[in-house]
């Protein structure tokens, strides 16, 4: 049983015309960092719930619930959420979903966290909580966006970098503009040309790395293809250990 319950809107952070964060308060059950839930609004015209899955960005030990969302042109739910006001009420599932969590990821020397866009959310939840991370010597958080101004949570990433005292490395990527602060290009090509590994002075291999992929399905598909064919890596399953853990974002 996983009932819908009411969630009160505390804040809408409108970063751009297409990117926003929704901060809610609701009596949900506990969740594991990296998991997602479902948000919904009731369509009075069609008399049905319009729902979609969103990952928790906040740590499980934080009181308020935070979700990083992309506003889709002509998207009914994302536009409804974008136009919510403080004190409005929406619906949220009481119990969380998903296995994109640290207790599902095996120990290794380096944990690589690859994200595009709003796919950064579950990693920020995991890193803010900080549990089950002692099994990695290094953690690499990679956030790829189109433009530098879309690195909305970079200040939080930088605070986490300081908090982890050198264990956490941050690398940002932009695909549609060149600048001095980020690598330029797409993740699969930066891997193909070894630009990413060289910039971090770390090497991806089956012997030392576990890869997490979250975000755009095309990025995931192309990155997985590269890792499988050029690094001899395989998906990780409970019944069969591998090197890659995946969370598709739509």
Automatic annotation (TrEMBL):
Organism the protein comes from: Buchnera aphidicola
Domain FAD-binding FR-type residue range list: 2-103
Cross-referenced InterPro entries: Cbr1-like_FAD-bd_dom, FAD-bd_FR_type, FNR_bac, FNR_nucleotide-bd, FNR_type-1, OxRdtase_FAD/NAD-bd, Riboflavin_synthase-like_b-brl
Catalytic activity: reduced [flavodoxin] + NADP(+) = oxidized [flavodoxin] + NADPH + 2 H(+); 2 reduced [2Fe-2S]-[ferredoxin] + NADP(+) + H(+) = 2 oxidized [2Fe-2S]-[ferredoxin] + NADPH
Name of this protein: Flavodoxin/ferredoxin--NADP reductase
EC number, as in UniProt: 1.18.1.2, 1.19.1.1
Pfam families registered for this protein in UniProt: FAD_binding_6 (PF00970), NAD_binding_1 (PF00175)
Required cofactor names: FAD
């Amino acid at each position: 049983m996983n009932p819908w319950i009411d969630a009160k809107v505390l804040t809408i952070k409108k970063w751009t015309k297409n990117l926003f964060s929704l901060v809610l308060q609701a009596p949900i059950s506990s969740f594991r960092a990296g998991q997602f839930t479902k948000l919904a609004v009731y369509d009075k015209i069609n008399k049905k719930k319009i729902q979609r899955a969103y990952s928790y960005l906040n740590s499980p030990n934080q009181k308020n619930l935070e979700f990083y969302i992309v506003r889709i042109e002509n998207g009914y739910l994302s536009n409804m959420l974008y136009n919510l006001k403080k004190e409005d009420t929406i619906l949220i599932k009481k119990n969380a979903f998903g296995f994109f969590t640290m207790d599902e990821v095996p120990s290794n020397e380096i944990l690589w966290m690859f994200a595009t866009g709003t796919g950064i959310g579950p990693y920020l939840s995991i890193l803010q909580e900080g549990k089950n991370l002692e099994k990695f010597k290094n953690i690499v958080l990679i956030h790829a966006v189109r433009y530098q101004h879309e690195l909305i949570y970079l200040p939080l990433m930088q605070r986490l970098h300081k908090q982890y005292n050198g264990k956490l490395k941050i690398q940002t990527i932009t695909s549609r503009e060149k600048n001095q602060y980020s690598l330029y290009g797409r993740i699969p090509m930066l891997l193909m040309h070894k630009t990413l590994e060289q910039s971090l002075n770390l090497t991806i291999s089956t012997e030392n790395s576990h890869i997490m992929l979250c975000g755009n399905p095309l990025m995931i598909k192309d990155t997985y293809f590269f890792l499988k064919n050029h690094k001899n890596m395989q998906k990780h399953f409970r019944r069969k250990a591998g090197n890659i853990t995946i969370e598709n974002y739509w």
